Each structure stands twice: as C-alpha cells, then as structure tokens.
Amino acid sequence: MAGPLAKRSGYLAMDMTDRPAPRTRGGSPLRVSWFELFYDLVIVASFAHTGHLIVNDLSGDRLTMVLGVWLVSTFLVTFALWFATSTAVNIAPGTVTLRKTLMFVQMFAVTVANLALSRSDGLPDDWGFAGLSMAFGTVMAIYAITGQRRPDLKAAVSPWIWSSAAAVIVLAVGIVIPDEWENAEMVAFGLASAFAIVPILLVGIPRLCRMNLVEPEHLAERVGQLVIIVIGESFLGLVLALSGFDYVPGPIFFILTFLVAGSLWAIYFSSVYPMGIPLTPGRLELWLLGVVVFLIGVSYIAEMLAAYSVVEWAQQSITRSFVPLAALYCLVGALLLGWIGGAARDIAYARIHLAAIGLLGILWIGLVLIGSPANLLLLAAALTVVADGLACIALQRRMSDREISTAE
Fold it and tell me: C-alpha dihedral over 313, 304, 370, 318, to 10 degrees?
C-alpha cells in the first residue's frame, strides 16, 4: 500500500518502506567538497572531448559505427571511473590526504587516456591503455585504503578492489598490443570495461544498498553538479567553435544552443532531480544507466549544435540520418531517471517525455523518408527538446500553484 506521500500535488509516490532512511554524519547531510567539484570538472572535460570527436567531421567521412561505439564506450568507462571514485567518498566521507592524492593522479590518467583512446591523430593507443590502467589502479588503491581505515566496510569495498584489479591487468596487456592490431585492442578494451563495470553492477552496488551505505543527498548533489557542468560545457564548445569568425555562420543553431541548454536544465531539475535516488538493488543500477544515457545525449547534442553554428545553412546538406539520436538520448535518459527515481516521481512528467519521444520519432521518420539533410533533422531534434523543457516548466509551475492554493 502506498505511503502518506502517495498523493501530494499530483505526485504518484512510491512506498517509502522500500528504501532505507537517509544517513547523515554528525547530524548534517554530507555535502560535496571543493575538491570533488574540481574532480568533476576534469572528468567533464573528458566527456566533452569524446563528444567533440563524434560530431567533429560533419561530412561523415571519418565517423563510422565502429568509431562511434568505441567513443561511447570510452565515455562509459570514464563515467564508471567517476562513479567508483565518487562512491568511495560517499560511503566513507572525510578528509583523507592519500585519497585526494590518488584522485589527483586519476584526473591526470583519465585525461591522458581520453586523448589517446579517441582514435584521432593524437597520442598512441598504448598511452590510453596505460592511462586507464593507472586510473583503475587508483580506484583499487582508494578502496583498499577505505577498507583498511574502516574494517566495517571491507565486505562492501572488496568487489570494487578485485574488479578494478582485473581491469588493470587486462589494460596492462593492452599496452603491449601494437596499434595496428585494432581488433585485439578492442577486445582488450572490451574485456577491461566488462571487468570494471559488470561485477559492480551485479555485486558492488547491490551490496552497498543492502548495507544501507549510500548517502542519497550527497550522490544526488554530485550527479546534479555533473549535469550542470556538462550543460555548461556546451557554451564553452560554442564559444571555441566561433572563435576566429567575424560573424555567426549558422545563427539558427547558435540561438538553439542557448535554448536547448536551458531546456535540458529545466528537464533535469524539474522532472529528475526532485524525484530522488532509488536505494534498492536493481533500481539504482537502472537509475545510473539513465544518468549515463542523459549525459551522453547532453554532451553530443551540445557539440552538434556548436558544430553546425559555424557552417552556413546552404552547406549543411549532408545526409546523416542518425543526427536526432543525441536528442533521443536526452529524452530517454530523463524518462528513465524520473520514472525510476525516488518517492516523489510524477507520472505527468513521464507523459511529457513519452510524448516528446513520440513526436521526435514521427519527425525523424518523416524527414528521413523525404531525404531531408542533417540540418533539418537537427533542427527538429532541438525544437523537440525545447518543447519538452517548456512543458516541464509549465507543469512544475502548475503544480506549485496547486500546492500554494491547497495550503491556503
């Protein structure tokens, strides 16, 4: 039976008995530190680099399905590193100098890895494997330190230690694989990713949930700040793309960059953030999947809009039918996050996202069938995101007015 929050201003709440009570330290919630915020900035820079590479070649000559999968996998592994390190602080807060030092080393390692594993004309792949190996080595060390300092957490941290150790070993093997052996490198990268992610999804996270170790306020704030930084990076990408021009070649997409960024902000902080974080096994993993999908969408649609802002409309006639995928990621991620979220999820927001997904699908199919160029596809995708954001704002305002009238 639903709890007392089952009906409140139109909210369909989940039973509060299915989630552990929030934990605090010293009577106050755990807050995000300045060092964690700096760490987030470095990680988001890697996200932005990956997104930039996916949309960098508007002619489509360089971007292939294999390259796209490789870059998305790099994004996923980077997020796995971020989550692993953030979780260590989440379950064992406090100022630990050695842990901060290891996190700083990880920032450097992740940066090198993303520059090398980008499949661009940059650092060789063995540098990328070395960077990732070092990064997962820091994760292993961070959790080993946590288990040593907190014996009560040894059972919780052990999956993170051995899964990271397995990833380190495979990545170390990848260092010696010649760059021309691309298939072998992809196998090594895939195995390392599986070793680092699958055991955590199947064992690590469920164990944390059963032991009631996750601090929901801290994790929600960390993810929220990560979203803020990723959205902020869209403006940086736009400014860098337009530097050197004495005019704006693509004014439509220049304006849409701002509108889409504001809409994504509204979508997350109206239909996702207030809904909370599920703290039960299975649902938390799905919620994290929603975070990844949403962040991929935000990163790629921002980079795509910035790229088209520096191209004349008449020159944007390339046929690239997958362009709306970025908007689809945003909408599906928001739907997944809000639907699986905490005790205050609202079915009305889900309906908005579902309607937007349906509208995008209709526009997508129709434009592809008539052979529309990529610029029209991107325009339709961006406008759909803007419409979703405006609908979320309208719903949030209507609910707020309803709460005020009810209180009176």
Answer: 60
47, 233 in Cβ contact below 8 A?
A: yes
Break the chain into its structural domains and give their ranges: 29-213, 215-408
Kindly report, residue by residue over 23-36, the tens digit of the pLDDT.
444 445 566 666 77
Q: What pLDDT, on the 0 to 100 scale, is given for residue 92?
A: 82
Measured CA to CA, the distance from residue 34 to residue 36 in angstroms comes to: 5
Burial of 194 (0-12, 13-18, 19+ CB in 10 A): middle
Q: With the CA atoms of 338, 340, 346 and 352 taken in that order, what torsion angle do they form, in degrees rounded to the nearest 10?
A: 50
Segment 365-377, tens digit of pLDDT: 998 888 878 788 8
Q: What span, in angstroms and rounded, lies between the C-alpha atoms of 10 and 344?
A: 10
Q: Which two tokens stand for residue 130?
A: 């070395």
pLDDT digits (tens, 9 = 90+) for 300-344: 888 788 878 877 776 666 666 777 888 999 999 999 888 887 555
User: Distance between terminal CA atoms of the chain?
Assistant: 29
- Cα radius of gyration (the chain): 22
In this prediction, residues 53-80 reach a mean pLDDT of 62
What are the structure tokens assigned to 48, written together? 């932005």
Token digits for 49? 């680099």
Q: Residue 317: CB partners within 8 Å, gap ≥ 6?
A: 373, 374, 375
Q: Is 405 exposed, middle or buried (0-12, 13-18, 19+ CB in 10 A)?
A: exposed
Residue burial 241-263, b: 16+ Cβ < 10 Å; e: rest: bbeeeeeebbebbbebbebbbeb
Region of residue 84 (left: phi > 0; alpha: psi -120 to 50; beta: else): alpha
Nearest in space to 338 (alpha carbons), one of 264, 259, 263, 269: 269
What pLDDT, on a 0 to 100 scale, did the predictor assign at position 260? Answer: 92
